[in-house]
């Protein structure tokens, strides 16, 4: 199964590269802009999806997952006013307010090094940083060599986004099937 997915991904990339290579016959500027923009956006999409998938798998395997409410439920009732929790109907004189405050404070999550490590690991992954460096350096390289043409460069970013999304979707379906 994995072999079929890899073949489909490689064939998508090769077909796109052949089409980009054919633009060299039209113009060197068109080819350079198309190639750099395609590879930049393709690498950004692939690196981001791989880093995100890796982060999700590590969180699931470490059992840090906590059951959260549905997004629609959070929008409709952000403070949980309509939840089915029992409410203490005791008179105010019988309530121990200090205990209630301590209990509510314990429910508040404090920023810890462990939580910070998991949040930062996805955003500071080399799989995300290197493609962005390639994007910036490619743009600067085109600009310094007087090859940058935004009318070719910007639409070419979209091509890389589409191919990167399709390829990462193919690999994501393979991971979910396993």
Helix and strand arrangement:
Layout: H1 2-22, H2 28-61, H3 71-76, H4 97-107, H5 113-123, H6 126-144, H7 150-177
Describe the structure.
This protein has 178 residues and is mainly α. It has one domain. The protein is built from seven helices and no strands. The chain has helices spanning 2-22, 28-61, 71-76, 97-107, 113-123, 126-144, 150-177. α2 (28-61) packs antiparallel against α5 (113-123) and α2 (28-61) runs parallel beside α7. The N and C termini lie close together (10 Å). The model has no long low-confidence stretch (mean pLDDT 81).
What would a concise description of this structure say?
With 178 residues, the chain is mostly helical. The chain has helices at residues 2-22, 28-61, 71-76, 97-107, 113-123, 126-144, 150-177.
Shape: elongated
Largest sheet: none
Instruction: Tell me how many strands there are.
Output: 0
- Report the sheet-strand fraction: under 5%
Number of domain units: 1
**Class derived from helix and strand content:** mainly alpha
The helix content, as a percent range, equals: over 70%
Number of helices, where a helix is a run of at least 4 consecutive DSSP H or I residues: 7
Q: Which stretches of 5+ consecutive residues score pLDDT under 50?
A: none
Q: N-to-C terminal Cα separation, in Å?
A: 10 Å
Listing every helix as H and every strand as E from the N terminus to the C terminus, the arrangement reads: HHHHHHH
Mean pLDDT: 81
Measured on Cα atoms, how large is the radius of gyration? 25 Å
Q: What key attributes describe this structure?
A:
178 residues, mainly alpha, 7 helices, 0% strand, elongated
């Amino acid at each position: 199964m994995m072999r079929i997915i890899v073949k489909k991904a490689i064939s998508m990339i090769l077909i796109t590269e052949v089409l980009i290579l054919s633009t060299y016959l039209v113009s060197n500027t068109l080819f350079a802009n198309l190639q750099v923009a395609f590879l930049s956006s393709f690498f950004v999409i692939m690196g981001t999806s791989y880093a995100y998938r890796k982060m999700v798998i590590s969180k699931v395997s470490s059992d840090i997952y906590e059951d959260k409410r549905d997004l629609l439920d959070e929008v409709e009732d952000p403070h949980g006013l309509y939840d089915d929790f029992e409410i203490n109907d005791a008179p105010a004189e019988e309530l121990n307010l200090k205990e209630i405050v301590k209990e509510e404070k314990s429910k508040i999550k404090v920023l810890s090094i462990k939580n910070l490590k998991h949040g930062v690991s996805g955003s500071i992954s080399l799989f995300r940083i290197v493609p962005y460096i390639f994007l910036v350096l490619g743009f600067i390289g085109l600009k310094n060599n007087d090859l940058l043409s935004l009318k070719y460069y910007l639409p070419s970013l979209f091509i890389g986004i589409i191919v990167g999304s399709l390829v990462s979707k193919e690999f994501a379906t393979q991971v979910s099937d396993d």
